[in-house]
Amino acid sequence: MNWIQETFLQPTMIQAVAVISIVCAVGVYLGKLKMWGISLGITFVFFAGILASHFGVVVNKDMLLFAQNFGLIIFVYTLGLQVGPGFFSSLKKGGILLNSAGMSVIFIGLAMTVVLHYITGISISDMMGLLCGAANNTPSLGAAQEAMMQVAPDDEKGITDMALACAVAYPMGVIGVILAIITLRSLFQQKGERADEKGATSQTFVAEFQVCNPAIYHKSIKDIMTLTEKHFVISRVWRNGKVSIPTSDTMLEEHDHLLVISVKSDVESIKVLFGEQENVDWNKADIDWNAIDSQLISRRVIVTRNRINGVKLGSLRLRNLYGINITRINRAGIDLLASPDLRLQIGDRLTIVGEANSISNVSKLLGDKLRRLREPNLLAIFIGLTLGVLIGSIPIAIPGMNTPIKLGVAGGPIIVGILMGAFGPRIHLTTYTTQSANLMMRQMGITIYLAGLGLSSGEHFFETVFRTEGLLWLGLGFALAIIPVLIVGFAMSRFFGVDYAHNVGMLCGCMTNPIALDYANTTVEGDEPSVAYATVYPLSTFLRIITAQLVIMLF
Q1: How far apart are CA 375 and CA 206, in angstroms?
Q2: Helix, strand or coil, per DSSP, at residue 554
Q3: Which run of H or E residues covers position 239?
């Protein structure tokens, strides 16, 4: 039995793999347990590592550091790759207000951190750990620790205490945001309010219009499109009881009925353009589109051909060449309007209306080979990881600072991931990974990182918590979690008219708190909190990682 003792007690490579795996397994299992309907999820891996370290489990430091950093790199890069396609578009239109509010939460938290550092005398590294825990953002903790290594490479205690402070404040972050949501719900959610009736103005919307505006009689669709700045797609035209797929040269006549796809916020403007909106609900989930007309069918086609990757939809001239209409495009679970300037990406799912033979020809052009999407695109992943760590290692000199800053293993990979996800298709680099594959890599990376973080910082956790300083940390962590959220949440509802569902989703996103999001989703009937969460999460994660380093460098 000596081999078992050697395997688990000797600080070797095998022992490191075995211990980290056990900690991950125990943490993942405990993360499924709920108390009062709330679970810490994968974060339990962090506390499982702390517990193992508390009971004397020791892992080779070099192996632990490698596993911890490599897990963090994998997580932030694949996160950037996933959110990249929608990152810059989320900053436009309705996303500007939500992202501005999210940035306000972040900067209020940073200001409180610095002020409390001077008031309480707690070191800035410990305060930064408390902020990372209050925001439930362990990647920013990794960035702050790396910055600390640049500023004070010999201060191992300061780096360890930063992780301890994060662990102490983490539960307070969960509790604080949920209490803030409860408060905002009691103040601003109207009784019986349905969230899905109040927002979703940026989601695609189908409506039927009758042409009653003399200004557009006998005009072609391409000429009519120049009369408005709004983007929409005319899917079908009914004339004299017959339905057809319009082209850009189709002339509209009086009393034509049009099926139009747009964003909901543009419906009133489109109504003014065409003249009259029919009182028909075309957004019900149970509509059989193929039964609307006998000669036309509706079918989803997937982009899988490499040469289509990054090509503008309008340049393919599919409507005029094949007599079909693309009504919407689904990318990573989000419906996009099929505008001519939209660049197609591998994995896009196009909803196409037309005759069966025409759709079959278009599917051959686009690829429509689902099996190709199941093949991993490892080239883009390894290129991105290499570029990420290289960019993260570039020293950036800032006037007035003795030590140049680096984006590090958290900042570099997430920037490269976002840029590759957003612009990779334009240089015909296939960055697509299935949602399940991306989620698998992200979860694997963050789980290994949390296990390593817990094992490296848990030796003195309990003796820190159960002393006066630990109690102070708990209070400060709770304040950092709830005060910025309440201030911005109240202002957004009272002064900017943001509805409750989008407001709480935004707050969960800027606090990078999926646990609070799960609770917020139980308080509304629609998915608006999740939409708002996804809108602000990429920028919030990026800012928290970068600002964590800047605060350590500056203060």
Answers
A1: 35
A2: helix
A3: strand 233-239
- Residue-wise pLDDT tens digits, 443-479: 888 889 888 878 877 777 777 667 777 788 889 999 9
Q: Which residues contact 545 (CB under 8 A, 6 or more apart)?
A: 76, 139, 140, 143, 410, 411, 414
CA angle 384, 387, 390 (to 5 degrees): 150
Query: What are the strands of the beta sheet with 242-244, ordered from one edge?
Result: 242-244, 233-239, 257-263, 204-211, 275-277
Q: Round to whole Å and give the CA distance between 378 and 441.
A: 12
Using the structure block, give the residue that is written with the tokens 């004299």: 240
CB-based burial label for 355 (10 Å; 0-12, 13-18, 19+): middle
> At 468, which amino acid appears?
T
Cα 134-140-146 angle, rounded to 5 deg: 130
- Find where tokens 């949501």 sit: 181
Give the phi and the psi of residue 278 in degrees, each rounded to 5: -80, 145
Distance CA 438, CA 356 (A): 34
Neighbouring C-beta atoms of residue 23, cutoff 10 Å: 28
Write out 425-468 in H/E/C secondary structure: HHHCCCCCCCHHHHHHHHHHHHHHHHHHHHHHHCCCHHHHHCCH
Is the entire prediction scored with pTM above 0.85?
no
| Helix/strand/coil for 42 | helix
Angle at 214 between CA 213 and CA 215, to 5 degrees: 90
Strands (E) located in 125-220: 204-211, 219-220
Residues across the chain? 555
pLDDT tens figures, 480-529: 999 999 999 999 988 888 888 889 989 988 887 766 776 777 777 665 77
Q: Count the alpha carbons within 13 Å of 141 in the hemisphere toward its beta carbon.
A: 35
Phi, psi of 520 (to 5 degrees): -60, -40
Cα distances (angstroms) measured from residue 117 to each of 113, 121, 140, 403, 552: 6, 5, 18, 21, 12
Tokens of 386: 């290499």
